[in-house]
Design brief:
- About 40% of the residues are buried.
- By secondary structure, the protein is an alpha+beta fold.
- Strands 16, 17, 18, 19, 20, 21 and 22 form a 7-stranded antiparallel beta sheet that branches.
- Helices cover about 35% and strands about 20% of the residues.
- Helix 1 runs antiparallel to helix 2.
- The longest helix has 20 residues, at about 20-40.
- It folds into 5 domains: about 50-290, DNA ligase/mRNA capping enzyme (D-amino Acid Aminotransferase, Chain A, domain 1, 2-Layer Sandwich), CATH 3.30.470.30; about 305-415, Nucleic acid-binding proteins (OB fold (Dihydrolipoamide Acetyltransferase, E2P)); about 430-505, 5' to 3' exonuclease, C-terminal subdomain (DNA polymerase, domain 1, Orthogonal Bundle), CATH 1.10.150.20; about 510-600, DNA polymerase, domain 1 (Orthogonal Bundle); about 615-680, 3-Layer(aba) Sandwich (Rossmann fold).
């Protein structure tokens, strides 16, 4: 089961998410604060799952990606309009609306109708093999029914627990003196991931089927989402009876309001509604963006709220020097979770000023001692939404944001156009040094077993680890350090730690890039960079070339333009990466690290079995066979790199009508130019 702090890790690490730079630092700060809750209430704050050493790992053939969120009717309307624009449709396509079950996602693989493997979602790409446990769930058919059974199919759904069964289970747990669960979702997740199958069998787990991943063929003549759900029902699965086919946005929103009114009376927990484009060929054309499908969205219910007292405002210093205010609250339960801390975002938010400079909360500021209304935004991150003015103490004073770092005392600056104050003591501030090292060993970076946050803090405090390379020299220095004499250590634990460190001397390129802690480069962008350059040598050569050409007037070098043209990167990320490599101290630290590593593995490419895999493609002109977004999405699915400008490294230019300077440059450079029909023939469409 995954803790809140780990979910916030993924939000902070995934810089393809729609957050501002300030919000990334807030997420990191709140993540750290939740770790306090995670440690004090471990069974009450676990809400998901990640691959564990207790179960064999399973690589999902088709990733189990997450959905984008909508929080208002306008978001749903915008989603449908995006779909129409992408597909060039005049009318709203049919949409399947279904309750969003608050449970644990599960993948079921069937071969010739027989269940052969069950796996949890995990991180979306790698899950856990829980086949033995799933065989105990009555709602999961061991053999598919019906005549039209695909030779191979991977079906998906949600493991959950009925509310009444959850209450009965917790009552039994209390009677036996065992830990009770926070909510049905935690209970279902914990029950499924038991090492002892008998424990899982004793728990009243249910399963709703609602999706699929890999299919050898579709078992119906009319391939639609709704027809597939009907087939799932005929094949022996339990399909949620509330699922409805909608033919307009009004129908979809009416379903949302109707199911929201029924929410309390439903026998299971839901946290919103999922809308999916019905036609499967439309889903295929729409494809994915970042980690979410373009053809589906989750319309979340409003966050639950509670009232409590803000006792103190503290400042958290992040690894980039960002100084984030955090509200320390009298503990209060919000949506089944105990909340003691909430984000205050930045100085302006405390003053009652929004990002656009306009008043928020009617311009009411936030003060220590205030009675405040707290909600969990998206049911995850706590935030203060209003102040109960009639309960404000007469002694409450306006909060004055500190202009010095509370950790190292360095002066802080707030750059023009930014909402965040930053500590200037980057090289001497312990908060930044420790946080950068924690980031380096974090789950999505080097992920060194036995070297967690406590160890990093201890080793840094003792002066043993000041930069990443120091981690890999601990073993050589241990004759002097004597780690085995530390409290909680022994010869075996120290030997295991050194073995874990040595195991990470071989690392994947995207993990290394992510571990460097470059601003704006999270897991998603690290993978984009790794896949684009392929190898460490190519990446370093390009980055150093771009950094050497950096001037106050800008950067027009070919290396920089190539970086800037990577789909999904853009100016902000490109400049941050180049600035990192333009700093000599960063290069010195990186060289020291690389000297300790054995191998940096080349990036694994998504597809290598197509005619355009690894090729760089530029689309130009007015396209008539497909939209620009469709063309880009299709090319990337086939392993191609889509660039925004033509260079000597461009393999193909696909030219529509009225193609201009890009077509001219392609001819000048001798780049192959294709018509739309020639491009479709090349990719096999």
């Amino acid at each position: 089961m995954q803790k809140f702090s780990e979910i916030l890790d993924s939000q902070y690490d995934d810089l393809t998410s729609p957050y501002s730079d300030d919000q990334y630092d807030v997420i990191r700060a709140i993540r750290d604060l939740f770790r306090v809750i995670d440690k004090s209430l471990p069974e009450y704050t676990k809400v998901g799952s990640k691959p564990s050493s207790a179960f064999a790992k399973v690589q999902h053939v088709a990733p189990m990606l997450s959905l984008g969120n909508a929080f208002a009717d306008e978001d749903v309307i915008e989603f449908v309009e995006r779909v129409q624009r992408f597909l060039k449709l005049d009318d709203v396509p049919a949409i399947v609306a279904e309750p969003k079950i608050d449970g644990l996602s599960l993948s079921l693989r069937y071969e010739h109708g027989e269940l052969v493997r069950a796996a949890t979602r995990g991180d979306g790409f790698t899950g856990e093999d829980v086949t033995a446990n799933v065989l105990t769930i009555a709602d999961v058919p061991k053999t598919l029914k019906g005549k039209h059974i695909p030779a191979a199919c991977e079906l998906r759904g949600e493991v959950y627990m009925l509310k009444q069964d959850f209450l009965a289970l917790n009552k039994r747990q209390e009677e036996m003196g065992e830990t009770v669960f926070a909510n049905p979702r935690n209970s279902a997740a914990g029950s499924l991931r038991q090492k002892d199958v008998a424990v899982t069998a004793s728990r009243p787990l249910k399963f709703f089927a609602y999706a699929w991943g890999e299919m050898s063929d579709y078992p119906m003549e009319e391939p639609t989402q709704h027809k597939m759900l009907q087939w799932l029902d005929h094949a022996g699965f339990v399909v949620n009876p509330e699922i409805t086919l909608c033919h307009s946005v009004d129908d979809a929103l009416a379903f949302y309001r109707r199911i929201g009114e029924k929410r309390a009376s439903l026998p299971y927990d839901i946290d919103g509604v999922v809308y999916k484009v019905d036609r499967l060929d439309y889903q295929e054309r729409l494809g994915f963006v970042s980690r979410s499908p373009r053809w589906a969205i989750a319309h979340k219910f409003a966050a639950e709220q509670a009232t409590t007292v803000l006792e103190k405002i503290d400042i958290q210093v992040g690894r980039t020097g960002a100084m984030t205010p955090v509200a320390r609250l009298q503990p209060v339960t919000v949506g089944g979770v105990v909340v003691q801390n909430a984000t205050l975002h930045n100085e302006d938010y405390i003053k009652g000023i929004g990002n656009d400079g306009e008043p928020i909360r009617d311009g009411v500021d936030i003060r220590e001692g205030d009675t405040v209304v707290v909600q969990r935004a998206g049911d995850v991150i706590p935030q203060i939404v209003s102040v109960v003015m009639e309960k404000r103490p007469e002694s409450a004073e306006p909060y004055h944001f500190p202009h010095k770092c509370p950790v190292c005392g360095s002066h802080a600056v707030r750059e023009e156009g930014e909402a965040v104050w930053r500590c200037t003591g980057a090289l001497i501030c312990p908060a930044q040094a420790v946080e950068r090292l924690k980031h380096f060993v974090s789950r999505l970076a080097f992920d060194i077993d036995g070297l967690g946050e406590k160890q990093i803090e201890l080793f840094h405090e003792r002066g043993w680890v000041q930069e990443p390379a120091d981690i890999f020299t601990l073993k050589a220095r241990n004759a002097e350090l004597k780690l085995e004499q530390l409290e909680g250590y022994g010869e075996t634990s120290v030997r295991n730690l050194f073995a874990a460190i040595d195991a990470r001397r071989t690392i994947e390129l995207h993990r290394l890039i992510f571990a460097l802690g470059i601003r704006h480069v999270g897991e998603g962008n690290a993978k984009l960079l790794a896949r684009h350059y392929g190898t460490l040598d190519a990446f370093l050569s390009a980055m150093r070339a771009a950094a050497d050409a950096q001037t106050e007037e800008g950067n027009t070098s070919e290396a920089y333009q190539d970086l800037d043209n990577i789909a999904g990167i853009g100016d902000v990320v490109a400049e941050a990466v180049v600035e990192f490599f333009a700093e000599e101290r960063n290069i010195k630290a990186l060289d020291a690290l690389l000297a300790e590593l054995t191998e940096v593995l080349p990036a694994e490419q998504a597809r290598r079995d197509t005619a355009v895999a690894g090729k760089t493609v530029v689309f130009t002109g007015s396209l008539s066979k497909f939209t620009r977004d469709e063309a880009k999405a299709a090319a990337e699915r086939l392993g191609a790199k889509v660039a925004g400008s033509v260079s000597k490294k461009t393999d193909y230019v696909v030219a529509g009508e009225d193609a201009g300077s890009k077509l001219t440059k392609a001819k000048d450079l001798g780049v192959t130019v294709l018509t739309e029909d020639e491009w479709l023939a090349l990719i096999g469409n």
